[in-house]
Every structure is written in structure tokens, then in C-alpha cells.
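// run 5 | inverse folding | seed 20
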């Protein structure tokens, strides 16, 4: 039976410092080279994750931006296998709602296999922190008066406190046919994310698409946070790391050691050794 293993990245596969341990890095690379189907499903864009992924050697395509993209990074240049843009008029209206609720968004545009990020203003400490960490990761990351009118909008992200983010989500989700996900940052307490994607873009649908692309028979999923629950919904085996939220643990079939203890890599190694 051919198994596709899909792990979340932050809080699941990598440590508290947002980097992989040597054991995890070496294990994932070895097992991938031996033919295990090991992939990622992250809310990060490929541009935002490139400093984390630079030493990984994934042979299986990976899922980014909560299912917006499936990309083969095993070759150079990388190849986008699947992506899902947002309908522009509704996306811009979503931006207006976020601005009204004090969470001005970052808007991600896709063209020529790369991403540009635009924002209109910064109004809170969380947003400034978020932007400074990411502004050098993209082809361009700029402040504008009017959003790009040419390229595809593929993702909208905003940060703020819990109340502002959840209030905005309550307005966006019923009005537009988008996926709207809220969760607290695993690295900075009190900072909440709201992420808006196409209604066809989530970790669940992307995992099913990746299962087809790899001709796998089953999915084993690893996660820690709220946006991993869609991935769990299509997995044959759901595995939470010890540091996962209570909600994710309750949905899991199995709980393994925390991300800081190489839980995912150790589990994969055990599975590989059983199959030999």
C-alpha cells in the first residue's frame, strides 16, 4: 500500500526557533531519497518558507498557502503543478472589510512563477513585526495606494489581536465564497492571523489532489494547529504532535512527541524501518 505522508511545517515539523533540527533534516532527506512520499502542507508561501526549506530535499510536491499552491521543488526551476486564484472583485471587498476592522491586509499576487506582496498601511505592532520578517523574501514587497490591477490575487493575509481578527472573519466568511482561517501565531503569543483563500483552496482539497498526483492509496497527516483540521478530515491516519492545540489533539488518532523532540521525523523513521 502506497502511503503519502503530509506534515504541517511550523509547530509540527520544525522547532520553536522556526528551523529544522539536524536529525529531522537528515531523516526527511534520507527517507525521501529512499522513496517515501513525504510532503508538506503549510500556510506559508514558498517564498516565505525558502529559508526553512533550503536544505530539505523533498522529492514529492509540497502544498503551500493553505492549499493555494502545489509545487514541485525537486527540480530547478521549481514548477507550479496547481494553483487557485481569488475572484478579484470579492477579494478587494474583503480587503476593505479587513481595513475597516483594523487589520489592513497583505495581498499576494502571482505571475511568472513568483509572488509579489502589496499593502496599503501598517496600523499595529503585529503587522509591522509580520512585514519586517517577510519583506525580503518576495520578488517585491511594497506599500501602495492602489492594489495591482493586472496579476492574479491568490492569497490575503492580515494580523492583529484575537478580537479584531475574529470579528473580521465573521463578516468575510458569510459574505464571500472564500475559505477564511483564523489562528494564533505559534511563535508570538497574542498575534492572530486571518488567511483568505479560494473556496477550493485548503489543505484538505490540496491533499486529495496530491494523493491523485502521486497515485497514493492513503494519507497520513501530521499537525498542531487549527488550520490543520481540514487536512485531518481527509487523512486515513491523523497524528498530532504533543504541543498541538487541544482541538487538534481531540481530532487525532495518535499523539507523538512534540515538534521540539523531532516527533514527526522519528515516527517516519519507525515506519520506514517497519517496512524493510
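// decoded
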Amino acid at each position: 500500500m502506497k502511503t503519502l505522508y503530509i506534515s504541517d511545517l511550523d509547530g509540527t515539523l520544525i522547532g520553536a526557533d522556526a528551523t529544522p533540527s539536524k536529525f529531522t533534516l537528515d531523516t526527511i532527506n534520507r527517507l525521501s531519497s529512499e522513496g517515501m512520499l513525504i510532503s508538506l502542507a503549510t500556510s506559508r508561501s514558498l517564498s516565505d518558507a525558502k529559508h526553512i526549506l533550503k536544505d530539505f530535499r523533498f522529492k514529492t510536491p509540497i502544498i503551500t498557502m493553505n492549499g493555494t499552491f502545489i509545487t514541485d521543488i525537486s527540480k530547478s526551476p521549481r514548477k507550479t503543478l496547481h494553483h487557485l486564484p481569488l475572484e478579484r472583485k470579492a477579494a478587494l471587498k474583503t480587503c476593505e472589510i479587513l481595513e475597516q476592522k483594523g487589520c489592513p491586509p497583505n495581498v499576494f499576487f502571482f505571475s511568472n512563477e513568483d509572488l509579489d506582496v502589496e499593502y496599503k498601511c501598517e496600523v499595529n505592532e503585529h503587522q509591522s513585526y509580520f512585514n519586517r520578517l517577510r519583506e525580503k523574501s518576495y520578488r517585491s514587497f511594497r506599500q501602495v495606494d492602489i492594489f495591482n490591477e493586472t496579476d492574479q490575487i491568490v492569497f490575503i493575509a492580515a494580523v492583529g489581536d484575537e478580537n479584531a481578527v475574529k470579528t473580521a472573519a465573521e463578516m468575510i466568511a458569510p459574505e464571500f465564497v472564500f475559505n477564511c482561517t483564523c489562528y494564533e501565531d505559534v511563535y508570538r503569543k497574542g498575534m492572530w492571523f486571518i488567511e483568505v483563500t479560494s473556496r477550493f483552496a485548503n489543505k484538505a482539497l490540496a491533499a486529495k489532489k496530491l494523493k491523485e498526483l502521486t497515485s497514493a492509496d492513503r494519507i497520513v497527516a501530521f499537525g498542531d494547529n487549527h488550520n490543520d483540521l481540514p487536512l485531518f478530515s481527509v487523512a486515513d491516519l491523523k497524528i498530532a504532535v504533543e504541543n498541538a492545540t487541544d482541538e487538534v489533539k481531540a481530532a487525532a488518532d495518535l499523539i507523538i512527541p512534540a515538534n521540539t523532540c523531532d516527533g514527526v521525523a522519528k515516527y517516519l523513521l519507525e515506519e520506514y524501518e517497519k517496512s524493510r
